[in-house]
Amino acid sequence: MSGKSRFHSIYWRQFALTAGMVLLTLLLLGTSFFTLTYTYIMSEKKEELQEKAVMMAELTATYSRDYPLYTPFFGGENQGMRIIAQVASSLSDIDFLIWDTQTNTLLTTDTGLEGQEVSLPARITDKVLAGGSYAGMTSLNIYPNSRYVVAVPIYTVGHGSIQGMVLAVTEAQSLTGMWRGFLGIFAMTSITVLLIAFVASSITAMQQTKPIQEMAAATRRFAEGNFDARVQTTDRDDEVEELAEAFNAMAESLQQTERQRREFIANISHELKTPMTTITGYADGILDGTIPPEREGQYLRIISDESRRLSRLVRRMLEVSQLQSMDLLREKGAFDLCESMRRALISMELKITDRGLDVEADIPEESVLVLGDNDLITQVIYNLLENAAKFATPGSALYLGLSLRGEKAEVTVRNHGATIDPEELPRLFERFHKSDKSRSEDKDGVGLGLYIVKTILEQHREHIYAASEDGVTTFTFTMTLAGSG
Fold first, then answer.
1. Which residues pair with 362 in a beta bridge?
2. Is pTM, for the whole model, over 0.90?
3. DSSP character for 315?
4. pLDDT in tens, 475-485
5. Which of 479, 458, 455 is nearest to 323 (CA)?
6. Which three-class secondary structure state does DSSP give residue 103?
7. For 160, left (φ over 0), alpha (ψ -120 to 50), or beta?
8. In the β-sheet with 408-416, what is the strand arrangement from edge to edge?
9. 334: nearest Cα among 370, 281, 307
10. What is d(CA 452, CA 462) in angstroms, rounded to the nearest whole number?
C-alpha cells in the first residue's frame, strides 16, 4: 500500500476524526475555561483593589482632618500616614499613590518613585477628580510596563468636597499568577487527555480496520483460487464482528461451492468418459475389422445404449440448469397433489412390475390442493418412486402416502432394501452422487435424479428429508396447502 493510500485508509481517517474531535473539544473547553477564569480573577482583583483604595482614601481623609495634606510625602508631622500606607501596602502587595487635586504627589509606597516628577494621564485625573473612579491596565506614564490601577477620589470628612485621589497599583504578574497556575494545570490535563485519546483512538481504529484488512487480503486470495482464508473473530459482539462472521460464512459457502464445482467437473468427466470410450472403442473395432461381422450387431446395440445414456446425461444436465434459473414462486398455482401422486404411480407401473414389487398407496380420495408447479412436483414424485423401486428388494412393498400436518402436506415414499449409512444420507442429493452398490447395479443411472428432486423443492421453498433404518428407507417432502401459502 502506498504512503498516500495508507494515509487515506479507514484507520487514519478514524484516528484523525477522533483526534480532531478531542482537540476541538479541548480547544473549546480551554477557551471557555481561560475566559471565565481570567474574567473571574480580574474581577476579584478589581474588587480587592477597589476596596483597598477606598479604605486608603477614607484613612487619608480622616488623617487629613487633623494633619492637612500640604507636604509632599507627608513629611514631618505627617509621618504617621506614611507608616499606615506602608503597612497596608506590605500586607496586600499593593502600592498606594496619593495625589492632591493639583496632581501633586503627596505620598507613595513605591520607593522607586520618591523624588520623581510624575505626570498622571489626564483621562484618569479628570475622571477621578470629577467624582468618578478608574480601573484598568495602564503604565500611568510612570512604569515601563502596564500595571493594574484603581483610582478613587478622597472626600473631605464632613464636607464631601474632593481634596485628592488615591491610586492602588499592582503588577500584572500578581494578577495573572493564579490564572497561569490554572493554565498550567489545564495544559497538563489536556496533554494527558490527548495522549489517552490518541492511544485509545489508535487501538479502536486498529481493532475496527484489522478485520477489514484481513477480509481484503482474504478476498485477494479468493481471486487467486485459495478459498481457505478466514477472518479471525473475537467476542466483541459489534457490527465489525458480525461482518467478520458473515464474511467467514460467505467464505465457507464459496469453498463448498468450489469443492462442489470440482467434484462436478470430476464426476461429469467420469460420466462422459465411460460411454464415450465404449462408443469409440467399439466403433473403431467395427471399422478396422477387429470385431467379427457376425458380432457387429451386438456391439452396435451397446453403442446405441451408450449413446442414449449420453443423451440422457446431457438432457438431465440441461434440465438442472433450466431448473436453477427458473422463478417458480411467480409461476406456481393450486393443483391436486393426490392426482399428481396417482399419475406418477401409473407411470411407474411397468418398472414396479418388472421388479416384482407390491404397492401400498395411502392417497386420500378427496382432493388436496397445494401451491406449486404441477408438472415439476409430479416429476419429484416420479423420481422418488423410480429411486425407491431401483433399490428395493425384489418382492418387497413400495409405499406412497400423503398426510396433512398443519399448513403443510407431506408426501412419503418408502421401500425395503439395504440400509443407507447415516453419513451417506446427506450426500444422496448431491450431483452425480452414487453409492457403490448403485454403481454396480444401475448402469443406466447418471446420479442426477435426487439432485433434481432437491433443486425443484428448493425452488418451491419446500424441504425433503431422508431416513434409513433396519433396511427401511424413507423420503418425505413437504408442500404448502393452497390458501395458507
1. 401
2. no
3. H
4. 999 999 987 65
5. 455
6. coil
7. left
8. 358-362, 397-405, 408-416, 472-480, 464-469
9. 370
10. 13
